[in-house]
Design brief:
heterodimer; A: 5-stranded antiparallel beta sheet; elongated; B: 128 residues; 5-stranded mixed beta sheet; 17% strand; globular
Chain lengths: 212, 128
């Protein structure tokens, strides 16, 4: 067993049951396609995300989870303890919809959010980024972890045509052929805070926040 | 530019099965709808199962594609069932107000095929 494997196992004690510690670490490594004997450059981040997911299965308390992720992060030499940086994704085509939502889901996993939360966040990111691609062509989305109250913020911006009469578009009775209002309405139903700034010819910015 | 996939429409007796395993681009979704229409006509299928067990995230776009496919089936006289929707996806759809109305669903592929067989059977016994 490598020094890294031992350190990772030690990081999980005593919160994760001794019965599962070995498998949490080794399954995370195999899912992340990383070798614990020889960790390569890009591996650490993926391994951290998978470890976080694995820990989540055995630890439901968010504070404990965060503590374990910090310890594991330190063991990986990822400079654990520093706040997670926001992720900015440039949006230029449909592929970015999947890229952005995967990064969002990974960030949720690292933050110790439940799988249900991960799906919700991935879905709203999908909605907002798809709107960018469909109506503006290009734009950007920024995913930021929130603190002190744990949560996540998604900021989607574009310089597209903007939305005329946003209130009408967002009202339940509005039916568009392209379904833009549906995505925004659905997103608004899920999140805790929803802000939209838009005007014809001025592009669109949507900022949403979802707390744990 | 990556090679685009084409989602196969598979025939099993009188049923067509479509298994969506990937995030479909606009083009792939359109191709699928075209293929479906052609295959229904070619095979005179009476049942269609759309299996979504491979899907991890369903947004309003994908819901609309599924609804379109269900509608195509219905217009062409084909009984359609959507199978394999993950519980968390179903929950998110409901929370977002995106649930697919008037759509028959089933837990998995076997259940879907059973449902279609049972419907066929009861439909033929109802003949006057």
């Amino acid at each position: 067993m490598s020094g890294l494997e031992q350190a990772l196992q030690e990081a999980l004690r005593p919160h994760v049951s001794e019965l599962f510690i070995r498998s949490v670490v080794s399954f995370a490594a195999s899912r992340a396609n990383a070798s614990l004997n020889h960790l390569k450059a890009g591996d650490a981040k993926r391994l951290l995300a998978e470890l976080s997911r694995g820990i989540r299965l055995y630890v439901s308390d968010v504070e404990v989870h965060a503590e374990l992720v910090r310890r594991v992060s330190a063991a990986l030499g990822e400079g654990g303890g520093r706040p997670m940086a926001p992720e900015v994704i440039d949006v230029t085509n449909e592929v970015d919809v999947v890229v952005a939502r995967k990064r969002g889901a990974d960030m949720c996993a690292e933050l110790g959010f439940s799988p249900a939360m991960q799906v919700r966040i991935a879905t709203i990111i999908s909605e907002l980024v798809r709107n960018i691609v469909q109506y503006a062509g290009t734009g950007s989305v920024t995913i930021t972890p929130l603190s002190p109250r744990p949560g996540i913020e998604v900021l989607a911006c574009d310089r597209g045509p903007g939305i005329d009469d946003i209130n009408r578009v967002m009202s339940p009775s509005y039916k568009s052929k392209t379904g833009m209002g549906v995505g925004l309405r659905g997103t608004r139903s899920i999140v805790d805070e929803f802000e939209i700034h838009t005007a014809p010819g001025q592009g669109t910015t949507v900022r949403v926040r979802k707390y744990l | 530019m990556t090679d685009e996939v084409r989602i196969p429409v598979i025939k099993l007796h009188d049923t067509l099965i479509v298994s969506i395993q990937i995030a479909m681009s606009d083009h792939v979704a359109q191709q699928l709808k075209n293929d479906l229409t052609e295959r229904i006509e070619q095979t005179r299928a009476t049942g269609l199962v759309i299996d979504v067990s491979g899907i991890d995230v369903m947004d309003s776009y994908l819901s609309r594609v599924l609804r379109d496919m269900g509608l195509i089936g219905k217009l062409m006289g084909v009984r359609t069932v959507i199978s394999g929707m993950a519980p968390m996806i179903a929950m998110t759809l409901v929370e977002m107000g995106l649930e697919l109305k008037g759509v028959t669903t089933s837990l998995n592929l076997e259940a879907a095929l059973e449902t279609l067989k049972a419907d066929e059977a009861s439909a033929s016994t109802e003949q006057p």
